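Shape is hard to put into words, and the shape of a protein is harder than most. The fold becomes a row of whole numbers, each drawn from a learned catalogue of backbone shapes. The outcome of that step, for a single protein, is printed below.
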Amino acid sequence: MTIPSSHDQLSDQYVRPPSVTSSIILLPGATTTQKNRHWLITLDGNDAPLFGKQLSVQPKKDTCVIVHWISDCLSSPGDVIRLRPCPGCDAHVPFPSANKYSAVQPRCTLTISLLRSMILPTNCERIRQSTSEVLSPYTWADLGITVIPYYRRLDLLPDFSSSSLVVVDAPVVAPLVVDQNLLSSSAPLPSGSHYHYYTDGSLINLGTPEVSMGWSWVQLIPDAGYLNSVAAYTHGTIQNWPSSTRTEAAAIYAALSINPADSTVTIYTDSQAAIDGLRLCASSSYSNSRLFYKTTNFELWASIEQLVHTNYLTVSPVKVKGHDGNYWNKFADSLANSAHYSDMAPLLPVDAYTSSHPVCLVYDTVVCESNPRRLFKLHFQATFLKDLLSLRRFQFLHCLYDRDDYVVDWELTWFTLNFSPAHDASFQASHATRHYTFKFKLFLDDLPLLEKLKLTCSDLYIDLLTCPGVLADQDPTPLLRKLYSLSCWTISSSNWSSYALIWGCLPVMFIDLFVELSIPRPSAMKVVAAIHNNFIQKLRKRIWNPRTYDKSKWEDAMNITLKLKTTPRPSNLPAISYVPYSSLPPPTHLVTPRDSEVDWIRNSMIQGLPWYKHLSGFMGRL
């Protein structure tokens, strides 16, 4: 058990006041960054102190590589801690890039968890060749009172008999007000009782206007005489930023929001992401850390963290195996699924779980609960793509309405339009296997028009790309037939698909082909962009001049025939009869003004999936 008002002190089971306190305050290791390299202290597998100097941080994994230093503090707990370099031990994990971060070659490096470590004050900020000893002003007798409970607060046991406790610090915040009429109440228990909840979430119709997120919780009272020990249950829905993790977090929020203050709660969930989110709550990542906004659903998790703080809850997450016949887990799953179709299922009010921070970022009435930097980047990209599609060169896109013939992959298109010359390295033999380029010989060897390029650009075809047998595990013939059937390979003035290919609007089939051949999508996009760039450059220079294409469309519109062009101009024909080519209006006005109904970024926030998947809503006819 832990003291609710402290993240680093333990008390005996069901006893609030601590028996021993420490006046030493250490900062959590999770607050360190790559630029601010600190000395860290944590525990090893035997609960012995482990010391080290930070080398490199992996923020997505909440881990850190350290230079291992050792101490005799266990044999002399009352003396100040003296550190010396570790000559090498069994725990050593090689770190080849160590020389990039340290001027002194380390003999022993380890990987530790930032969530389980704390920053250790020392008299040394930088390790030099002459550094043989580092001192800390504290003793292990003083630090152990703080470090040991902080390390153990995240111990999670996967069984039902016992579980770890998620401990949170209590910041000074305004109390969170939740309308209890919107949520069912749990079965009341005597003061100091232990509450047990099974929680689950459900997501359907992702990426469509019919998207729905359901959540549920089931309260258990073991051996209380209820049918299967189920005392109470409820379900509901939540909106915006759809994901399965969000539904799981909503279920936990709903359960904790109706739980009595100053109580112990065990949450049983089949979601590891939900348990990881509660771990971040333990380190106050959603209220104190400047990195909280890098976590998806951070507003919802911040509200969960605040609930635990303000109500003095001790929360214990327990991982259960999903779809394994567990009655209560199946019950919670069924409740969450039924929330999609129930008129009585309450909707979690947005204001309730987005009020934890004094500043709230809102985009077109939707609260931002993803990385704001990413939102700004997407808005920048979408704005420029909107401006790009308004150019006359893209006014033909309304002619690509036939989804069975030419479906534009806008992620690939955007990537290709931002083409980097570095992608051309994919055509070199030294990079071929790294980028799976040999499988892209399907493009280079078999597709129409590209055969002509072989005659003029042999440098694009290295031997590795035509090596036989590289596709022995899978017959690509059916995939090739589908690719051959695309109309874009036939260049003509009446074929808009070929025009789309040349101007960079690439079809979904290009990527689908190689994904089905077990090629990672990022690698496929990189190589396809390089192939397309070379294709266009050579096609424009050596095979076909696209300017004549536009000219022919103008001539068709003006009914200028070959006979007319080869016949001398009649002397009595007034000059105003000719409409200048530059003044010819575009065939259609494709781009519509941005509003809340057709904005692809807002649709992505509400319906899910990347913003480029919602271009159809923005562009109307495409």
Notes: DSSP finds 20 helices and 14 strands in the chain.
